[in-house]
Design a protein that fits this description.
Elements (H helix, E strand, L loop, with lengths): L9 E4 L6 H11 L3 E3 L2 E3 L13 E3 L2 H9 L3 E7 L2 E6 H9 L3 E5 L2 H10 L4 E6 L3 H11 L4 H16 L6 E4 L3 H13 L10 H16 L1
Bound molecules: adenosine-5'-diphosphate and guanosine-5'-monophosphate (5GP).
Protein backbone atom coordinates (compact mmCIF):
# COMPACT_ATOMS: atom_id res chain seq x y z
CA UNK A 1 0.00 0.00 0.00
CA UNK A 2 1.30 3.46 -0.92
CA UNK A 3 1.09 5.93 1.97
CA UNK A 4 1.19 9.67 1.55
CA UNK A 5 4.62 11.24 1.64
CA UNK A 6 3.78 14.79 0.52
CA UNK A 7 2.25 17.32 2.93
CA UNK A 8 -1.52 16.89 3.01
CA UNK A 9 -4.02 19.56 3.90
CA UNK A 10 -6.63 18.18 6.23
CA UNK A 11 -9.93 19.84 7.11
CA UNK A 12 -11.97 18.59 10.06
CA UNK A 13 -15.45 19.90 10.92
CA UNK A 14 -18.34 18.87 13.11
CA UNK A 15 -21.30 20.30 14.99
CA UNK A 16 -20.13 21.78 18.30
CA UNK A 17 -19.68 19.07 20.93
CA UNK A 18 -19.16 16.12 18.56
CA UNK A 19 -15.48 15.87 19.56
CA UNK A 20 -13.47 17.36 16.70
CA UNK A 21 -11.09 19.34 18.96
CA UNK A 22 -10.33 16.21 20.99
CA UNK A 23 -9.66 14.18 17.83
CA UNK A 24 -7.58 16.90 16.14
CA UNK A 25 -5.41 17.41 19.24
CA UNK A 26 -4.73 13.70 19.42
CA UNK A 27 -3.78 13.62 15.74
CA UNK A 28 -1.19 16.41 16.05
CA UNK A 29 0.19 14.81 19.24
CA UNK A 30 0.60 11.36 17.68
CA UNK A 31 1.37 12.41 14.10
CA UNK A 32 3.51 15.53 14.44
CA UNK A 33 3.80 15.97 10.68
CA UNK A 34 0.40 17.67 11.11
CA UNK A 35 0.18 21.14 12.66
CA UNK A 36 -3.06 22.73 13.82
CA UNK A 37 -3.86 25.93 12.03
CA UNK A 38 -4.50 28.42 14.85
CA UNK A 39 -7.39 30.70 13.87
CA UNK A 40 -8.23 34.21 14.99
CA UNK A 41 -11.52 34.64 16.81
CA UNK A 42 -13.62 37.31 18.48
CA UNK A 43 -15.02 34.66 20.89
CA UNK A 44 -13.81 35.21 24.46
CA UNK A 45 -11.28 32.62 25.67
CA UNK A 46 -12.46 29.71 27.84
CA UNK A 47 -10.62 29.34 31.17
CA UNK A 48 -8.52 26.44 29.83
CA UNK A 49 -7.53 28.19 26.59
CA UNK A 50 -4.24 29.98 25.93
CA UNK A 51 -3.55 32.84 23.53
CA UNK A 52 -1.82 31.44 20.43
CA UNK A 53 -2.50 27.80 21.36
CA UNK A 54 -6.26 27.33 20.80
CA UNK A 55 -6.80 30.69 19.07
CA UNK A 56 -5.49 34.21 18.65
CA UNK A 57 -8.16 36.07 20.63
CA UNK A 58 -8.88 39.49 19.15
CA UNK A 59 -11.48 42.24 19.47
CA UNK A 60 -14.01 43.15 16.77
CA UNK A 61 -11.94 46.10 15.54
CA UNK A 62 -8.76 44.09 15.10
CA UNK A 63 -10.69 41.35 13.30
CA UNK A 64 -12.38 43.90 11.05
CA UNK A 65 -9.09 45.54 10.17
CA UNK A 66 -7.62 42.12 9.31
CA UNK A 67 -10.60 41.51 7.01
CA UNK A 68 -10.15 44.90 5.33
CA UNK A 69 -6.43 44.33 4.78
CA UNK A 70 -7.06 40.85 3.28
CA UNK A 71 -5.13 39.01 5.95
CA UNK A 72 -7.55 36.08 6.04
CA UNK A 73 -7.53 33.11 3.71
CA UNK A 74 -11.13 32.66 4.86
CA UNK A 75 -13.34 33.88 7.68
CA UNK A 76 -16.92 33.31 8.78
CA UNK A 77 -19.53 34.09 11.42
CA UNK A 78 -20.03 30.99 13.54
CA UNK A 79 -22.24 30.74 16.66
CA UNK A 80 -22.48 34.57 16.84
CA UNK A 81 -18.72 35.19 16.77
CA UNK A 82 -16.20 35.64 13.98
CA UNK A 83 -13.47 33.13 13.20
CA UNK A 84 -10.79 33.27 10.50
CA UNK A 85 -7.75 31.48 9.14
CA UNK A 86 -4.95 33.97 8.50
CA UNK A 87 -2.74 33.64 5.45
CA UNK A 88 0.27 34.01 7.77
CA UNK A 89 -0.76 30.92 9.70
CA UNK A 90 -0.83 28.75 6.59
CA UNK A 91 2.51 30.16 5.41
CA UNK A 92 4.00 29.43 8.86
CA UNK A 93 2.89 25.79 8.72
CA UNK A 94 4.10 25.24 5.15
CA UNK A 95 7.44 26.87 6.06
CA UNK A 96 7.87 24.29 8.83
CA UNK A 97 7.26 21.58 6.19
CA UNK A 98 4.22 20.28 8.04
CA UNK A 99 0.69 19.54 6.87
CA UNK A 100 -1.93 22.03 8.06
CA UNK A 101 -4.91 20.69 9.95
CA UNK A 102 -7.86 23.09 9.73
CA UNK A 103 -10.57 22.93 12.39
CA UNK A 104 -13.12 25.13 10.61
CA UNK A 105 -16.87 25.10 9.98
CA UNK A 106 -18.57 24.27 6.67
CA UNK A 107 -18.18 27.85 5.39
CA UNK A 108 -14.43 27.70 6.01
CA UNK A 109 -14.30 24.25 4.43
CA UNK A 110 -15.90 25.60 1.26
CA UNK A 111 -13.34 28.42 1.05
CA UNK A 112 -10.32 26.24 1.78
CA UNK A 113 -11.44 23.68 -0.82
CA UNK A 114 -11.74 26.56 -3.27
CA UNK A 115 -8.09 27.50 -2.65
CA UNK A 116 -6.73 23.96 -2.24
CA UNK A 117 -8.87 21.48 -4.11
CA UNK A 118 -6.64 18.57 -3.05
CA UNK A 119 -7.36 19.13 0.66
CA UNK A 120 -8.87 16.13 2.43
CA UNK A 121 -12.11 16.94 4.24
CA UNK A 122 -13.57 15.01 7.16
CA UNK A 123 -16.86 15.56 8.97
CA UNK A 124 -17.22 14.19 12.49
CA UNK A 125 -20.71 13.03 13.49
CA UNK A 126 -21.94 12.49 17.04
CA UNK A 127 -23.63 9.11 17.70
CA UNK A 128 -26.87 11.03 18.44
CA UNK A 129 -27.90 14.63 19.06
CA UNK A 130 -28.81 13.71 22.65
CA UNK A 131 -25.20 12.59 23.17
CA UNK A 132 -23.89 15.75 21.47
CA UNK A 133 -25.92 17.90 23.89
CA UNK A 134 -24.74 15.78 26.83
CA UNK A 135 -21.07 16.24 25.83
CA UNK A 136 -21.51 19.96 25.32
CA UNK A 137 -23.06 20.31 28.79
CA UNK A 138 -20.44 18.06 30.40
CA UNK A 139 -17.66 20.24 28.89
CA UNK A 140 -19.01 23.14 31.02
CA UNK A 141 -17.66 25.82 28.71
CA UNK A 142 -20.87 27.36 27.39
CA UNK A 143 -23.50 29.62 28.91
CA UNK A 144 -27.11 28.43 28.57
CA UNK A 145 -27.56 30.85 25.65
CA UNK A 146 -24.39 29.68 23.88
CA UNK A 147 -25.42 26.06 24.46
CA UNK A 148 -28.77 26.69 22.77
CA UNK A 149 -27.12 28.52 19.87
CA UNK A 150 -24.69 25.68 19.29
CA UNK A 151 -27.30 22.90 19.49
CA UNK A 152 -29.63 25.05 17.37
CA UNK A 153 -26.96 25.34 14.65
CA UNK A 154 -26.25 21.60 14.54
CA UNK A 155 -28.91 20.81 11.90
CA UNK A 156 -27.54 23.39 9.43
CA UNK A 157 -23.99 22.15 9.94
CA UNK A 158 -25.07 18.53 9.40
CA UNK A 159 -26.98 19.53 6.25
CA UNK A 160 -23.63 20.54 4.71
CA UNK A 161 -22.16 17.04 5.08
CA UNK A 162 -22.04 16.73 1.27
CA UNK A 163 -19.00 19.04 1.17
CA UNK A 164 -16.91 16.39 2.88
CA UNK A 165 -15.10 13.39 1.41
CA UNK A 166 -15.22 11.40 4.63
CA UNK A 167 -17.66 10.92 7.52
CA UNK A 168 -16.66 9.51 10.91
CA UNK A 169 -18.94 8.72 13.86
CA UNK A 170 -17.30 9.71 17.15
CA UNK A 171 -18.99 7.08 19.31
CA UNK A 172 -15.96 5.38 20.86
CA UNK A 173 -13.10 7.89 20.94
CA UNK A 174 -10.33 5.38 20.18
CA UNK A 175 -12.19 3.96 17.20
CA UNK A 176 -13.04 7.38 15.85
CA UNK A 177 -9.41 8.40 16.25
CA UNK A 178 -8.26 5.28 14.37
CA UNK A 179 -10.61 6.25 11.52
CA UNK A 180 -9.29 9.82 11.44
CA UNK A 181 -5.65 8.73 11.50
CA UNK A 182 -6.25 6.23 8.69
CA UNK A 183 -7.83 8.94 6.53
CA UNK A 184 -5.07 11.43 7.36
CA UNK A 185 -2.35 8.95 6.42
CA UNK A 186 -4.13 7.73 3.31
CA UNK A 187 -4.64 4.23 4.67
CA UNK A 188 -7.60 1.93 4.22
CA UNK A 189 -10.58 2.90 6.44
CA UNK A 190 -10.86 0.88 9.63
CA UNK A 191 -14.68 0.86 9.81
CA UNK A 192 -17.31 1.38 7.13
CA UNK A 193 -18.30 5.04 6.91
CA UNK A 194 -21.76 6.10 8.09
CA UNK A 195 -24.46 6.35 5.45
CA UNK A 196 -26.76 9.09 4.21
CA UNK A 197 -29.50 7.55 6.37
CA UNK A 198 -27.37 7.99 9.49
CA UNK A 199 -26.85 11.68 8.68
CA UNK A 200 -30.56 12.17 7.90
CA UNK A 201 -31.48 10.65 11.27
CA UNK A 202 -29.14 13.10 13.03
CA UNK A 203 -30.55 16.06 11.07
CA UNK A 204 -34.08 15.01 12.15
CA UNK A 205 -32.97 14.74 15.79
CA UNK A 206 -31.21 18.12 15.64
CA UNK A 207 -34.29 19.81 14.16
CA UNK A 208 -36.62 18.36 16.75
CA UNK A 209 -34.30 19.30 19.64
CA UNK A 210 -33.91 22.86 18.27
CA UNK A 211 -37.70 23.17 17.93
CA UNK A 212 -38.35 21.79 21.45
P1 LIG B 1 -15.94 19.98 19.58
O1 LIG B 1 -14.53 20.47 19.36
O2 LIG B 1 -16.46 19.21 18.40
O3 LIG B 1 -16.89 21.05 20.03
P2 LIG B 1 -14.80 18.61 21.90
O4 LIG B 1 -13.62 17.91 21.34
O5 LIG B 1 -14.58 19.81 22.76
O6 LIG B 1 -15.89 18.91 20.77
O7 LIG B 1 -15.63 17.50 22.71
C1 LIG B 1 -16.79 17.86 23.46
C2 LIG B 1 -16.75 17.12 24.81
O8 LIG B 1 -16.99 15.73 24.58
C3 LIG B 1 -15.40 17.24 25.52
O9 LIG B 1 -15.63 17.38 26.91
C4 LIG B 1 -14.71 15.91 25.18
O10 LIG B 1 -13.83 15.51 26.21
C5 LIG B 1 -15.90 14.95 25.07
N1 LIG B 1 -15.71 13.86 24.09
C6 LIG B 1 -15.09 13.89 22.91
N2 LIG B 1 -15.16 12.69 22.28
C7 LIG B 1 -15.86 11.87 23.10
C8 LIG B 1 -16.29 10.48 23.02
N3 LIG B 1 -16.00 9.71 21.97
N4 LIG B 1 -17.01 9.99 24.04
C9 LIG B 1 -17.32 10.77 25.12
N5 LIG B 1 -16.95 12.06 25.27
C10 LIG B 1 -16.25 12.61 24.27
P1 LIG C 1 -15.26 26.87 19.10
O1 LIG C 1 -15.80 28.19 19.55
O2 LIG C 1 -16.07 25.72 19.68
O3 LIG C 1 -13.78 26.73 19.31
O4 LIG C 1 -15.46 26.80 17.52
C1 LIG C 1 -16.73 27.05 16.97
C2 LIG C 1 -16.74 26.70 15.50
O5 LIG C 1 -15.91 27.60 14.77
C3 LIG C 1 -16.26 25.30 15.15
O6 LIG C 1 -17.18 24.77 14.19
C4 LIG C 1 -14.93 25.53 14.50
O7 LIG C 1 -14.61 24.53 13.56
C5 LIG C 1 -15.18 26.86 13.81
N1 LIG C 1 -13.94 27.58 13.49
C6 LIG C 1 -12.83 27.71 14.26
N2 LIG C 1 -11.89 28.44 13.63
C7 LIG C 1 -12.41 28.76 12.42
C8 LIG C 1 -11.92 29.50 11.30
O8 LIG C 1 -10.80 30.01 11.27
N3 LIG C 1 -12.75 29.63 10.24
C9 LIG C 1 -14.01 29.09 10.21
N4 LIG C 1 -14.73 29.27 9.11
N5 LIG C 1 -14.50 28.38 11.25
C10 LIG C 1 -13.72 28.22 12.34
Amino acid sequence: MKLRTRPTLLIVSSPSGAGKTTLCRRLVALQPQFALSVSHTTRPPRPSELEGREYYFVGDRTFESMVETHQFLEWANVHQHRYGTSRDEVVRIFASNKSPLFDVDYQGTRSILHHYDKAISVFILPPSIGELARRLRARRTESEEAFRTRVGNAARELENYGLYQHLIVNDDLDRAYADLEAIALGKESVRPEPTLLDVERLIGEAKSLAGA
